[in-house]
Specification:
Number of helices: 5
Largest sheet: none
Order of helices and strands: HHHHH
Radius of gyration: 16 Å
Protein name: Integral membrane protein
Strand content: under 5%
Keywords: Membrane, Transmembrane, Transmembrane helix
Distance between the termini: 9 Å
Structural class: mainly alpha
Helix content: over 70%
Organism: Microbispora bryophytorum subsp. camponoti
């Protein structure tokens, strides 16, 4: 079921949110990597780890977004788990007055969870049609 005919709108929305989050993480990880190379980081090892985590995490989120887009059963678990982990990160950002990052992240995670757990998404991913 890899055509848009069999993909409910909820999964299209979920894939879009996951792809946006993945792309942002990839870009931010790349930015930290470039800044690490051209700048003088206070802690080189931490800067490299943050850059690597951002790039790897972004790439993995894009892969999960692709799985959701293709209506592949395996993609639901990682998609839901990443959004659950995003919520405390967003709350922490909001508590530290980083509203420009925290509010969009909590909104994106909430939207992704709602559409991933919607009945149409569950049927498509977990029903007989999504048993791949």
């Amino acid at each position: 079921m890899s055509s848009s005919v069999g993909r409910p709108g909820t999964l299209t929305a979920a894939a879009a949110v996951l792809a946006a989050e993945g792309l942002l993480a990839l870009v931010l990880g790349g930015y930290v990597g470039v800044e690490t190379v051209i700048g003088q980081p206070t802690d080189l090892v931490t800067s490299i780890a943050v850059a690597g985590f951002g790039v790897l995490g972004g790439a993995l989120l894009l892969w999960v977004a692709w799985g959701v887009w293709q209506v592949l059963r395996w993609s639901r678990g990682p998609a839901v788990v990443t959004q659950i982990f995003a919520l405390p990160v967003a709350i922490s950002l909001i508590q530290s007055a980083q509203y420009a990052f925290g509010i969009p992240l909590i909104a994106a995670a909430a939207v992704a969870l709602v559409v991933l757990l919607a009945p149409a998404s569950t049927r498509a991913l977990m029903g007989e049609d999504g048993a791949r």
